[in-house]
Protein: DNA-binding response regulator
Amino acid sequence: MEDKRLLIVDDDEIFLNRLGRSMERKGFLTTLAGSVREGIEKAQSANADYAVVDLRLEDGSGLDVVEAVRKYSPDARIVMLTGYGNIASAVAAVKAGAVDYLAKPADVDDIINALNATGNEKPAPPENPMSADRVRWEHIQRVYELCNHNMSETARRLNMHRRTLQRIMAKRSPQ
Structure:
């Protein structure tokens, strides 16, 4: 069996290790990185056939890692993962060289299908996509984070009453 070298870059250590083990069980030889800096370093030496990269990392953007993977392994198939999906970042990921863009939490089989999709072939839709309530929750959380955890500014940008936003934020995230 031909080696399938996979670089995984994510700053969530638990998720990184779990995904690495799952991909190894599926036949991949994994290299793990927990930051942009480490991802770029490992992209130089890993000679990856595939890469799975988180968009937002503690020390920067996963797009920098995508560009490094593309530079050192031009034929690598790259999938971008993110908990904060939006059209602009999806377009930026594809322009940087990613072949697909998946929202977290992504199933291992969905990631493998995206990595293995060829040419014009589109991967099958996910078995368990995020609910509309979960997508809304993720969007609110992202705007809140971008507003430096300022509730009033977040409410203004989302065009909603601050108390309504506070009630939403007080609840557990939907599944």
Notes: The domain at 5-116 is CATH 3.40.50.2300 (Rossmann fold).
